[in-house]
Amino acid sequence: MDKFRVLGSKTRRKMLEILARKELHISGLAKELGISVPVTAKHVGILEKEGLIERKKFGRTHVLSANTKKLDGLLDAFVESLSVQVRRGSSVLDVLKKTSGVEFRKTGDKEFVVSVNGEDGYYIYEVDGTSPNVPMDEFLLAENVKVKLKKLVPVGKKDISVKIK
Q: Is the whole-model pTM more than 0.70?
């Protein structure tokens, strides 16, 4: 079954939402969803087969969690692919300026990507799968590469209540 059909189930999407926030036993997951353990186990099996959830074993106890790396990878299926030609020594910023739908804002002497295809946000870049330690205008290209523009999406990993004495 492909991943998009797997995610077509509202129950499985809700499972992933819950398991992305916390680890649970199958019985705890069933209780949160308000469904039986056997039905939960069936859905868990489908999600496990696609690698969307992981199972940790502690003796006879099994704890489930969402495989967020796999979930993030699903979104790559929707990435727009383009080809741009620039001169040797051009910067990544020069490449992005030749790309439609990319908007910039100048702050001081630096320019930043602020929107892609009308979607405002904070963006970073990778060159051949690596995140360089320099701004886009300082990374100079000497050979053919693959540049990937990524939107930083605020995803909670911890929710911490702080109490002051």
A: no
